Amino acid sequence: MQHRGTAARRGFLLSAAALALATTLGLGANPALAQQAPAKLIITAIPDDGDADRMRENFGALARHLGKAVGIPVEYMHVENYAASVTALATGRAHIAWLGAVTTAQARMQMGDRLTILGCRDIDKGFVSYFIANPSTGLGTVADLGELARAAQGKGWSFTFGSKSSTSGHMMPRKYFMDQTATTPERVFRSVAYSGSHDVVMQMVADGTHQVGALNYASWDKAADELKARAPIVYKTPPYTNYALTARADLGPELLARLRAALLTIDGSTPEGAAVLKYLKAGKFIEADISEWQGYVDLLESGIDIGG
Amino acid sequence: MGAAEMNSAALPLAARYQKRPLGHFYALLAVLLAVLAALGAAEWDWAALTDSERRAQAAARIGAWLAAFARPDLSAAFVAHAWELTLQTLSAAILGTALAVLLAWPLAMGASRAVCVGEERDAGRSAHWWPWLRPWLRHFPLRSPSALLCAACRLLQDILRAVPDFVWAIILVAMIGLGPLTGALALALNITGILAKVYSELWDGVDESRYAQVRSLGGGRIATFLYGIRPLASRNVLSFTLMRAECAIRNAAVIGAVGGGGLGAEIWYQVRFGAWDKVGTLILFTLLLTLAADLASNYVRRQLRGDAARSGAAPASCALPGSVGEATPRAAVQPSARAARPPLRPWLAAGFVALALSWSLWFMGWGNHAGEGGAPRNHLVPAAELFTGQAWENLRFFERLLKPELDLAAIGLGDPDKAAARAAQGKAVELFADYGVADFWRPAAWAAWQVELQKWFVWRVVESAAVPLAIAVIGTLLGVGGAILLTYPHSASFQLHAAQFTGESPAPWQRLLRALQLAAARASAVVARGVPEVMWAFLAIAFFGPGLVAGTLAIALHTLGVLTRVFGEAVDNQPLARFEPACGASRATTYASVAVPRVWRDWMTYAFFQFESNVRAAVVLGLIGVGGLGFQFSFNFEWFRFERAGTYLIMIILLTVLIDRSARLLKLSRVGR
């Protein structure tokens, strides 16, 4: 009995599976667009700003500017996750991505020469992170992070980074912390959390959910004065290289050259350009080379302790 | 449950006494041990509750939240925004569930032993060489090809269930690109795992003797399934599918990893900003959505059952496959009544479902313009990518997940050079360096062994599972305790109809008071259940800070809501005459000494199921800052350390498989038997 039913059952299972697949196919309706010569470029970005609508609006403006300049429609697709934006770029589901230094290095490690840089902001070659503290801690400005660590010892403070994969909200603050204190934040603070984005770090420190936090300077600078008073700066890190507009090299040298040129011409004269520059806190975009991010690749490959 | 009564009444007296459940005492002992282990294994930081300053802070935040919740942000712009998010959530959930039903059906056929393997329980027992070996052989997958297929299907459904949906979403990004459909498909994969598990358990749960006739007439496994098992379980399958659709709507509020967005992502964002008035509005929308889904699924159920009077008979709740109403014995007496009625109602129900499905397809495809500048575009097109080689080629990106980091060097295996290097650094495990096996009675030896083992990555992975397990154990117990207390005011039998069995005649003001109690209890249960545990966790983290306490509270609250409903229905399903022997006793005494013992068995089955789903929920809570296995997994995954993430993933799957298999072994899913 066991053997008699086998063939029939397999047949049924197969046909049932085929039916399920066919139904899914029916949903698809149209054949896939050919991917060879992209009729449309997709741009994505790491969600370092927690406000999705604000990102859609401003990166939508960047997409429109690039689209007008190169004559191919460019569309911004929002993701809620840093890893998803790298995955999309590395697997060709996005053609251009606004990445931080760590995510650029991650993409470089995944993609090798298939990754190229379109450019970066004028502020990206001297980026800084701030350590901030809730006024209830009684912390003033500290000369270095060793002093912060000594002040925090035994106080039971909790600490928050931004996103796990953020450069200015996690990687660099952690690196400077470890360099200057010879220990890790996990050993100094009662708990170490990852709040997700820079503006959230500032809010949570101001509210006292966490006593100390780290975030990038641009997010602190653009916050309201009332919030700044409740989350004052205690330490500024040395400058480092950060964000870049990256692209897939397989777009071809000709299209890449046009995209680079379009990026460099962004200024306040068009509404799109003005919106992008204002949102990104930049004066203009400048040329950059992938080699400027090689330090991060080396850092990641050295197996640095990044918590977790 | 009705069937429980009938079955046990039909048993001979001796058999009933033979079945005297000594197991409950073992169970209590096991629960006690589990609590001790949970408190000991994870680092509980009670400071949020004991430290007066932090308690005051938390109280202030809860106060601010409650005050803001009373005055939600009802500005036109924000309500329109919340409405948009609600529609996104709804369409993703409906589409996800519909796809999941299609995929789960064949998978469950493979995973059901009764359907796929088709062994008869007692066949060949007497003829076998070692009769005692037979029951154990049933759990050995290599005994036949079909048994192997069955085991493979079960593993597949466990993987679908265990992998968090944000991981499916990222994998799908590589396959079909970015967009709202990606989130819905990720949801579909996750629900497929859940539905397939429950379908296969329901089919396995049908008593063999009830379809033995199909077999004896020469039906093969397919015929047995189509004419025996499927019809017998169809009522439960339907109930559970609808119930799961409700849960999917609740869970869809949580996805938002890719494109789609939805209520969950927005609440998380607003919670962290302390914008409590906006959180209030969003939670209000979530509750409305949940309630609407509840009403809609009750409507469909009622139409399909063709019996309005029994509409309330099916307790419905998340992750409680056993809770579906087992009303088959009564169904047997009804065919004549049903035949007389024009068969319009099933069409109504089918039409309603079709309408909901087409709406969600339209909305997902064309109605949802989020993130593309308003130009109409068919968002369903990316699904066609699944049928290109490119999509599957892109899966190679995640290849390293399949090569988990086992850190063999630490335990002196694998490449001898690396092992020697590790040993030279003093980072290799030397288990018996200080204490030998003979020292097992010394606590210091165990501590030293643990320290040694922690040098091995895999051991740290195993230890990280303690966090979700501890959260689930404590959270479930708190929830069960709360539910037992809340069921009393929640029960219509005890608040409205008590006069019929206690013999008292309450004054009008007493009756009013009881009705108010009932309403208050039901409202709090609806809120506790309607808000998903992840949202409770968002709130608890905002109140008490991230940690085990916040996670446990979230799990306990949601469990309380879910269990109060099924506990209450179990009590209210008892005929009032059963409470009469306690005539003269107070209502509370009757509840504690008559009602609770009668339904205890059902309650514990529900509680175990809730525990299983709580373990998975606790893993997911790890992703949002509670720590432990889920946190470590997502951390490594997001840093593209896929080898390490792979090890954690194996642990997550292992946890799911272990709990699932033990539930199957204990046959807990067979409610009412």
From TrEMBL, chain A:
Keywords: Signal. The keyword Signal applies. One of its GO terms (cellular component) is ATP-binding cassette (ABC) transporter complex. The keyword Metal-binding does not apply. One of its GO terms (biological process) is transmembrane transport. Residues 1-34 form the signal peptide. NCBIfam families: 3A0109s03R. Belongs to the phosphate/phosphite/phosphonate binding protein family. PANTHER family: PHOSPHONATES-BINDING PERIPLASMIC PROTEIN. This is Phosphate/phosphite/phosphonate ABC transporter substrate-binding protein.
